[in-house]
């Protein structure tokens, strides 16, 4: 397994809409393994393929509580088919936007359809943290980020800060 580099703001690839995965093969399974390794090392609870430079509709996550056994999941071509009425507010972070947290209200439960790592169609119900993480990661597949839930002013301040940091890194 290889730890991959996580792409951060303001890299424009984060704004791309990811294309569907066409084949579940050994290469894809290797990418899933590497993404899980990268996510656990970060550490994070979810990671979309676009965050490691692969704009395909694939994400990994593990919503197990601290102290619980790991529960790695890979969702290929995920599609939310139903959301519950109740909303859940959670302060979300993003591995592509270090040190920024945004309070976001989203549906607290959902059903998602996807292809698993064996290439089989699956559908699961999710609630709580799992529902939040799935929605956060599917947003990545649409090029949507947590800062998009902020006012334009706040979003611009954050983007400008990351742009400055990126410039600094280039000459360092
Ligand atoms: Ni994220």
Strands, helices and their partners?
Layout: H1 26-41, E1 46-48, E2 58-61, E3 73-83, E4 87-92, E5 102-107, E6 109-115, E7 121-127, H2 128-141, H3 152-171
Describe this structure in words.
There is one protein chain. By secondary structure, the protein is of the alpha+beta class. Strand 6 and strand 7 form a beta hairpin. The model has no long low-confidence stretch (mean pLDDT 96). The two termini are 30 Å apart. 29% of the residues lie in helices and 26% in strands. The protein has one domain: Peptide deformylase (Peptide Deformylase). The chain has three helices and seven strands. 29% of the residues are buried.
Gist of the model:
By secondary structure, this protein is of the alpha+beta class.
């Amino acid at each position: 397994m290889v730890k991959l580099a996580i792409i951060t703001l303001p890299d424009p690839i984060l704004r791309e809409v990811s294309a569907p995965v066409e084949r579940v093969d050994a290469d894809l399974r290797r990418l899933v393994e590497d993404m899980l390794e990268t996510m656990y090392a970060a550490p994070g609870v979810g990671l979309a393929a676009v965050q490691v430079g692969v704009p395909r509709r694939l994400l990994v996550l593990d919503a197990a509580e601290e102290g619980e056994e790991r529960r790695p999941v890979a969702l290929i071509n995920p599609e939310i088919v139903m959301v519950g009425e109740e909303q859940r507010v959670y302060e979300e972070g993003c591995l592509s936007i270090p040190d920024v947290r945004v309070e976001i209200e989203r549906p607290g439960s959902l059903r998602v359809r996807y292809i698993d790592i064996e290439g089989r169609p699956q559908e699961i119900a999710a609630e709580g943290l799992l529902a939040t993480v799935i929605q956060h990661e599917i947003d990545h597949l649409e090029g949507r980020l947590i800062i998009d839930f902020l006012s334009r002013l706040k979003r611009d301040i954050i983007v400008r800060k990351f742009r400055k940091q990126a410039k600094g890194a280039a000459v360092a």
